[in-house]
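Long-time lurker. I teach an intro course on protein structure, and each term I like to show students one example going from raw sequence to a predicted 3D structure in token notation. This year I'd like something fresh instead of my usual example. Would anyone be willing to generate the tokens for the chain below so I can use it in lecture? Attribution to the forum is fine with me.
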Amino acid sequence: MKEIAELTKMIILFVLIVQCTYAFCLFLLGNILFRQFENGMIKQPKNGLFKAWNAALFLLFGIGPFFYSKLLHHNWIVRRLFLLMIIFLMVAAAEIFYLVMGSFIRVFLS
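-- Reply from a regular --
Happy to contribute to a lecture. Here you go:
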């Protein structure tokens, strides 16, 4: 049971690290990476495979492009500054979320 708890914590940590890293790469590359993300999305998916593809993209990379799309109406420098602040908040929130989930997992699965 302890191995399952550790594996669950590692999966949560992996998803949080990928989200924050992709958001930082979006800060560095901007519209180039955002367009790549949008091109990878399937607009109005018709079957389960395409819906699963969209869900996997949002699960792994979705928070950074979500905030970036909300900031598109700002000019370049303001967008970058807001995104940098959001990334710092994301990292802090991810650390708090990981610690809280780790304690819940330790209590319920150990």
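Some talking points for your students: The chain has one domain: 2-109. The radius of gyration is 16 Å.
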